[in-house]
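help with this.
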Amino acid sequence: GEGDMLVLQNEISNIDYLIECAHSKKMKVILNPSPFDENMKGIDLKKIYLLTLNEVEAVELCGSSEPEVVMNYFKSRFEDLKVILTLGVKGSIYFDKEKEIFCPTYLVEVEDTTVAGDTYTGYFVSGIYKGYSIEKCLKIASAAAALAVSRKGASVSSPTSCEVEEALKTLKVNTRDGLEIEKKKIIVSNYINNNLENPCLEHLAKLLGYSKAHTTVWIKKNLNTSFSSLVKTNRCKKAAQLLRETDMPIDYVIKRVGYENGS
């Protein structure tokens, strides 16, 4: 019924029919498009509450596994969709129309990755159902997946909730360079989106822990663009969203996204 959660992935028959029925009952449908095939491209994602996908599935759905590209793709097409993008050892990112949250992985000796995705999804959804914050759900799911990949086998390697709770007390966060880059990309994106009216490179540099000059170089190297171009792109996206979703006058929208006039 309404509010209940239905978790699906692509080894289930008649998945499109199930999604249609669940959506008509106002259920929350969680979809993991694995194993990916052409049928997945025909699924109406507007009827999905939460989409969980890895880098391979991201490439199939939107042509890239780069977090910024993936986020822009889904945000511009499905305003109510919540998405988790898992990045293997680099961690995972949750995003919706309002927030972007990065979560690193935990350091373990990897034995078998067979059940990692299912374990991650199951623990994340369980946390949401219990009313946990997104941040807590991400940590629990990441710890559970870490335990799962440290064991051999499929379902038998998925840990119990008690094991996960204990592991969170001792597991160490993976702090490799790649994780820091992804985390800082999220910081840049969040800062610009939250400060469209008056973005300041100096303020962003302080958040990143860099000088202004190094921040400029870092953005160019890791995002393939400039700070001013990022601001312009995000202003245009926000303006388009406001014009599409509200009745705000154009002059007000222009000022809302940081411009003084229509030019």
Remarks:
- The beta strands are 5-9, 28-32, 50-53, 82-86, 92-95, 100-103.
- The radius of gyration is 20 Å.
- The chain has a mean pLDDT of 89.
